[in-house]
Specification:
Order of helices and strands: HHHHHHHHHH
Distance between the termini: 40 Å
Strand content: under 5%
Helix content: over 70%
Structural class: mainly alpha
C-alpha cells in the first residue's frame, strides 16, 4: 500500500475516536460539577485534581478501546453485531444530546451532590473520572470504535496504523477534558449558557451522523454474511 493510504487511515481513525468520544464525554457539562465538588479548594489542589481526573479518564477510554475487543472475542460476539448495537447506542446518545437543553448533565449533577470537596479530592478516579466524566455510554462508544477499527482491514500493519491513529484521538479528548477542568471558571464565563448549548448541539449532530455510519457498516456486513450463507445453502442443495 502507498504511504498515502496509511496516512489517510491514521487520520480517519483519529477523527473517528475524537469525534465519537468527545460529545459523549462532554467536558463542558462535566466542568460545572467539577467546580462544585472542588468548591473552596486551593488553586494548586484543583489543578492537580484536574490532571488526575483527565489521566484516569483517558486510560479508561484507551483500556475500553483495546481490551473491549478481547472481551468480545471471549464471548464470541461478531464485530458486525457490535457495530450495529454500538452504532444504535451512539445514535441514541447523539439524539438525546440534540434534544436535551442541559446536554444530559442532570444525572451527573445528582450524583455529584452527595460528595463533599474532601471526598472528591480523595476520589480522582471514582466518581470524578468514572462515572461522572467517563460513563457507561462513553465506555460502550470506545469499545464500538475499537471493534470498528479492528474489522476495517485484514492487514495487521493497517490495523496497527488505525489503532495508532485512534490513541491520539483519545489523548486529545483527555487533554480537552483537562483544559476544561483546569480553566473551567473563566471558560464557562466566556462561553455562557448559549455558547455552551450551541457547541454541544453541533457536536451532538456530528455524533448522530457517526452513529448512523457505524450502524450502517455493521448492517452491511451482516447482510453480506447472510447472503453468503444463503449462497452456500443453495449450492449445497443443488
Amino acid at each position: 500500500m502507498a504511504y498515502y493510504d496509511y496516512a489517510s487511515a491514521f487520520g480517519r481513525s483519529f477523527f473517528l475516536a475524537f469525534a465519537t468520544l468527545l460529545p459523549i464525554l462532554n467536558p463542558p457539562a462535566v466542568t460545572p460539577i467539577f467546580l462544585t465538588l472542588t468548591d473552596g479548594a486551593s488553586h494548586g489542589t484543583r489543578v492537580d485534581l484536574a490532571r488526575r481526573v483527565a489521566i484516569n479518564a483517558t486510560l479508561l477510554m484507551i483500556g475500553s478501546l483495546i481490551a473491549g475487543n478481547v472481551v468480545l472475542g471471549f464471548f464470541g460476539i461478531s464485530l458486525a453485531a457490535v457495530r450495529v448495537g454500538g452504532g444504535l447506542l451512539v445514535m441514541y446518545s447523539g439524539w438525546r444530546l440534540v434534544n436535551s437543553a442541559d446536554a444530559d448533565s442532570d444525572g451527573k449533577a445528582q450524583m455529584a451532590q452527595v460528595f463533599t470537596p474532601e471526598i472528591a479530592r480523595a476520589r480522582a478516579f471514582y466518581p470524578l473520572a468514572f462515572p461522572i466524566s467517563v460513563g457507561p455510554g462513553c465506555i460502550s462508544a470506545a469499545i464500538t470504535v475499537g471493534a470498528s477499527l479492528r474489522g476495517q482491514h485484514p492487514s495487521p500493519l493497517m490495523s496497527a496504523t488505525q489503532y495508532a491513529g485512534a490513541l491520539p484521538g483519545l489523548l486529545a479528548v483527555g487533554w480537552i477534558l483537562f483544559l476544561c477542568l483546569r480553566f473551567g471558571e473563566p471558560l464557562l464565563g466566556k462561553l455562557g449558557v448559549n455558547g455552551t448549548a450551541i457547541f454541544m448541539r453541533m457536536s451532538a449532530f456530528v455524533l448522530l451522523c457517526l452513529g448512523v455510519q457505524i450502524c450502517w457498516d455493521g448492517a452491511h456486513d451482516l447482510f453480506l454474511s447472510l447472503m453468503r450463507d444463503a449462497q452456500h445453502l443453495a449450492a449445497s442443495a443443488s
